[in-house]
Amino acid sequence: MLRLLRLRRVSNLFSRLERDIRLNYFWMRSIRLLCVTLLAVHCAGCFYFLLAVKEPNPMQTWIGSSLPDYRSRGPWICYIYSLYWSMTTLTTVGYGDLHAQNCAEMAFNILYMLFNLSLTSYLIGNITNLVVEADSRTKKYRDSSKALDSFAKRHYLPCELHEQMQDHIRLKYKTQMLKHDEIMNAMPKAIRTNIARRLFFDIVESAYLFQGASYNFLLQLVTEMVPEYFPPKEDLILFNEAPTDFYILVSGMLDVIVIIDGVEQVIEIAQASDVVGELGVLCFKPQPFTVRTRKLSHLMRIDRNNFMTIVNANVADGQIVANNLFQHLRSTSNKYICEIAPVFESALANGECGITMSLGFVTSTGESQLLELMLNQGTDPNTLDDSHQTALHISATNGFIECARLLLQYGADPNILDDENSVPLFKALNEHHYALARLLWDHGASLPVGAQGDYLCTAAEKGDVRLLESLLNYGADVNSANSRVDTALHIAIESGWPEAVKLLLTYGAQVDCRNQNGLTPLEMAKQGGQEALLELLHCPPKVSLSHTTVPIRNPVKIAHQRSTHSPRSWMSGFYRSSTSQKGIRSKEFNARITVQVCHPKSLELGNAKAQKFLIPLPSTWDALMNSLSKKLGYSPSKIYNEDEAEIDEISVIRDGDNIYVVGEDLNKVQTHASHVVTNRTSRRRS
């Protein structure tokens, strides 16, 4: 009897086998139930034979009534008789022919029959579960199909739509065993992230929309993706529907369809790794296409709300995504997409999509078209980033001359200092972008007096002779000192750059100026034992006046730059946004002024009927006078601003200014107006 304790080990063995996914659960469970049944039959048969052996009268036993000489028979014959008796009792088959012969057997049969009830219930319940589980999916599919047929007939749906519904139910039945959502939701976030990275990361990384995005951003994105399967000829996205999701195609093929003159036309075929639905989602516009599967397709669905949450947490990556979409719209050869592209480009530029693109980021990519679009939408060109840099700083550093030209045209200030005390002109010279530096110079850029010493010392420390010469040519004082009272000559001698020392001496560097430690450049060279430098300092080259000439600014460009510095300049781009949406982009900014034919004093007398007109701001004073003469029919004698100050130079007139033109007759009116105003003032005081 003690050996029955081994049954616990056997039970554990079967439990392990049932959990082993390499073995079929149905057969493992069936074998376990069979073993339980055989064990019960064996134990009952042994007890029956034990009762017969213990009975004094062999004929008063169940086996004695059937086999009188059972005591003389072998053990296997008796064992078979006992099993037969036990089995017929367990299954209640033939129990009327075999029954108890004494009280002990009757008592045992009572207990055995009660046990049989429990065992039979256990067996029937387990077998039922196994059979039902195997057939439940099929039954559910059949029920869904019947309900779908009934629905289609009740609502008189067309046969084509009915077939699409049936295909969807059939595909769902075939892919139900994947249980992706059920498995992923049961896992903790760390494991879900690793699973998603293994399954979807390569697909997402290869999509054009996410080129250049960070690893962490892509990892967060794949965690929120949901795989879906679609049968052929099923619509994923409908034309003009609200943007809720977009898809990345893993396998299969999709048709991008538009309706032209009432006829559906396929304008594009999406292949693996292509993205569909992103235009509507990212630009928050109705979907411009219908997307339909051409064959069985596996796609990754991304919910818009989840995507925007991730983008808001990764601002830099969001700007990369928006820029990739803009580049895609620009590079596409599809005629239909080119026609609708301005609407989506405008949404990207003004931030309607929820992804705020900074001017600095757009400039860093060198995308001048998107930059112009943003400036046209009214973005301030002097916006500062975290490093106190403007877009002009970034453009100067990277050498994007077209971006710099656009920024200057829309009023960017070329003399703003960043956290490193650098201006765009120094950034351009430091990176040897000389054409861009000249552009900045012509638009009023200069090297700040307080930072010239730092700029020169930086160049001298590196031994960059070209940078030193450029800084000096653009007006830097060769004897200006840095924060430690060191001049560029001190730094060049300390660093041991003979060419830099020679250049500085050529530009008139003083050899007797002292630094914070009270040392002159000559004394520093002696301490360092630099004979070549000592010789240069003792016999310095002659100062060439041609070297000290600052480049002449183009006055036309300066006047234009000053006009665009007005806040009205960059805000006026907002009112031209409709032009940009039609694909018409102005290549050159035209400044305008308002001309009133009266003296400013006459307005105080209530003369509000003065002639007023709008003209472009000419580039020269003579051109302005000629334009006014043609417009008025006579040559103006004087021009005033709103503060009654007389104007005699074109450079002081800015975009959006009001000027007052006065002829000889109007001078008399002005004199009379002055007397009237004076009399009124004296009366008020009295």
Automatic annotation (TrEMBL):
The chain crosses the membrane at residues 31-53, 73-98, 110-132. PROSITE patterns: ANK_REP_REGION (PS50297), ANK_REPEAT (PS50088), CNMP_BINDING_3 (PS50042), KHA (PS51490). It comes from Ceratopteris richardii. It is found in: Membrane. Belongs to the potassium channel family. Plant (TC 1.A.1.4) subfamily. ANK repeats lie at residues 387-419, 456-483, 484-516. This is Uncharacterized protein. It is a multi-pass membrane protein.
